[in-house]
Amino acid sequence: MDFVGKPLEFAPYLGNAKREWSKAQENFLGLVEHWQSLCTEQFGGLVSVIQVNSKPELQGVVIDKAYAVELRPITVGESGFAEVVIKVLFSDAVHAEAGRFLVNRRGNVVKEDGTVLVDIDSDYGSFTIFTSIAKVVLETPYPKIV
Questions:
Q1: Are 82 and 21 within 8 A, CB to CB?
Q2: SS3 letters for the chain?
Q3: 52-58: long-range contacts at Cβ-Cβ below 8 A with a sequence spacing of 24 or more?
Q4: Tens-of-pLDDT digits for all 146 residues of the chain?
Q5: Longest dimension (CA), the chain
Q6: Number of domains the chain is built from
Q7: I need a surface site. Which of 63, 87, 96, 144 has the fewest CB within 10 A?
Q8: Model pTM?
Q9: Does residue 59 form part of some domain?
Q10: Does residue 145 lie in a domain region?
């Protein structure tokens, strides 16, 4: 853990993180309507997705395999992001993390240094994000119990 060297600078840092998080969350969750259309038009109902009660959380199913996508605020250096965590829900007591990635204020999937991996404004940006989520859910095995 690093200790804050200039505590008076924390309030602006916090405000920036909140603004970045809010825009990232808004832009990411704004893709859900498009994803719902993909569920019927492209995937024949084998995939589903809904936003849970206006929370920064999605739930769905990929061929009878339940999943959740949770968004949480995170900062890397001076930049704020939404950290997207994908979980496969095998039962109430058993779940496994399937993957995670960062979303910037524009809604793009990025590396920690800000390099864009998936641009939502590209032809297949939204489609790429959602199919990647569905694929990683399908590929996640039941956790080994030790």
A1: yes
A2: CCCCCCHHHHHHHHHHHHHHHHHHHHHHHCCHHHHHHHHHHCCCCCEEEEECCCCCEEEEEECCEEEEEEEEEEEECCEEEEEEEEEEECCCCCEEEEEEEEECCCCCEECCCCCEEECCCCCCHHHHHHHHHHHHHHHCCCCCCC
A3: 56/25, 56/29, 56/82, 58/29, 58/32
A4: 888 888 888 899 999 999 999 999 999 999 999 999 999 999 999 999 999 998 999 999 999 999 999 999 999 988 999 999 999 999 888 999 999 999 999 999 999 999 999 999 998 999 999 999 999 999 999 988 77
A5: 55
A6: 1
A7: 144
A8: 0.92
A9: yes
A10: no
- Give burial (CB, 10 Å; 0-12/13-18/19+) of 79: middle
96 part of a folded domain: yes
In which domain, by residue range, is 80 found? 7-139
Which structure tokens are listed for 114?
A: 């800000």
Report strand pairing: 65-76 vs 79-89: antiparallel
